[in-house]
Every structure is written in C-alpha cells, then in structure tokens.
Amino acid sequence: MNKKILKKVEQHLITPEEAYDLLYGSEKKSGRFITMRMNIHSAKFVGYLISALFFIPWPIGIAKVFLKKMAKAKKIDVEPQLIDQMIKSSRNTSMKVENKDAKIKFIIL
C-alpha cells in the first residue's frame, strides 16, 4: 500500500500532503489520562506526595476542570474551546521540565 501511494506522488496524481494523510492519518486522537512525576530538590516530601497522587494515571476530564477553574481564578484570558482543542491533539505527548530546583515530567496517554 505504501508503494502505491508513493507511486501516485511520483506521478503527480496526489500531493505530498495528501499522501502523508493517507499514510499516517490526518487526525490525532484525544488524550484520556494524565500522569506526572515530580522531584523537587528543596521540598522532597511535596514531590513524593504529588508523585504518589499521580502514581495511577488520572482521567483527563478532571485535569480539564482544574485548568478551566485556575484560568478563571487567575484571570487568564483563555477560551474553554482552546483548552478542549489542546487536549484533543495531545495523545502520546510527553513533556519534561528540568532546572536546578526541580524535575517535572508530564505524560498524556
């Protein structure tokens, strides 16, 4: 199947963008769970507590509610649709934050 699609691109029957969509799919799946590991150098207990809370992945719906409430409380101008769009395209995303004070790792499953 891959060779057929590449032949179509070679013969200019489809564009490379269309071929990419055919090969890999154009729509990302929504993330369902979030997990987090935290290591704070100055406050080890807090890091262990948060790591223990997120030992089992949490449903992303709970995180979505907290994100929206925090945005309202801190008066950050973020539309709820933007948060929903970010979560919809976030499956299999991993983020590491490392500095001299802490190491934090988020994984969206």
Please, could you describe this protein's structure?
With 109 residues, the protein is of the alpha+beta class. The protein has two domains: 1-27, no CATH class; 31-108, no CATH class. Helices cover 47% and strands 21% of the residues. It has five helices and four strands; from the N terminus they run H-H-E-H-E-H-H-E-E. It has helices at residues 2-10, 16-24, 44-53, 60-73, 80-88, and strands at residues 33-40, 58-59, 93-98, 102-108. Strands 2-1-4-3 form a four-stranded antiparallel β-sheet. Helix 1 (2-10) runs antiparallel to helix 2 and helix 4 (60-73) packs antiparallel against helix 5. The longest helix is centred in the middle third of the chain and has 14 residues, at 60-73. It is elongated and about 60 Å long. The two termini are 29 Å apart. The mean pLDDT is 81.
Give a brief outline of the structure:
By secondary structure, this protein is an alpha+beta fold.
Strand and helix layout:
Blueprint: H1 2-10, H2 16-24, E1 33-40, H3 44-53, E2 58-59, H4 60-73, H5 80-88, E3 93-98, E4 102-108
Antiparallel strand pairs: 1-2, 1-4, 3-4
Q: What would the average pLDDT be, to the nearest integer?
A: 81
Strand order of the largest sheet: 2-1-4-3
The share of residues in helices is 40-55%
Counting DSSP H or I runs of 4 or more residues, the number of helices is 5
Q: From the helix content, strand content and strand pairing, which structural class follows? A: alpha+beta
Total number of strands = 4
Q: Radius of gyration, rounded?
A: 20 Å
Shape: elongated
Q: Report the β-strand fraction as a percent range.
A: 15-25%
- Count of the separate structural domains: 2
Order of helices and strands: HHEHEHHEE
Report, as a whole number of angstroms, the end-to-end distance: 29 Å
| Largest sheet entry | 4 strands, antiparallel
Spans of at least 5 consecutive residues whose pLDDT stays below 50 are none
